[in-house]
Design brief:
Number of strands: 3
Bound molecules: zinc ion
CATH superfamily: Cytidine Deaminase, domain 2
Oligomer: single chain
Helix content: 25-40%
Largest sheet: 3 strands, parallel
Strand order of the largest sheet: 1-2-3
Number of helices: 3
CATH topology: Cytidine Deaminase, domain 2
Number of domains: 1
């Protein structure tokens, strides 16, 4: 079994890459700051485990505030948002 670990739920592009590659399981640390593709990934046969780690949620919620201009805008964050470190 190959497992991939992510801090947040994936964006559309990463979800497709994830289920097209030989991953059997994804462990998502936090769906409070970004979520939405968990069921799609499950529907493709990948086991999805969500930790909802409170320390990680708090850390990520603070992250954009400590970044200089040019980082993604805060309004993109929040439950249901789709963010990606490569976008
Ligand atoms: Zn992505």
């Amino acid at each position: 079994m190959t497992t991939i670990f992510t801090m947040l739920s994936s964006c559309d592009a990463c979800a497709v890459l994830l289920y097209m590659r030989p991953f059997n399981r994804v462990v998502i640390g936090d769906v409070a700051n970004a979520s939405g593709k968990e069921q799609l990934i499950r529907d493709k046969g990948v086991q999805v485990d969500i930790l909802e780690d409170q320390k990680g949620i708090a850390l990520y919620a603070e992250y954009p505030h400590g970044k200089p201009d040019g980082y993604r805008r805060p309004e993109r964050f929040g439950r249901g948002a789709q963010v990606c470190s490569t976008s």
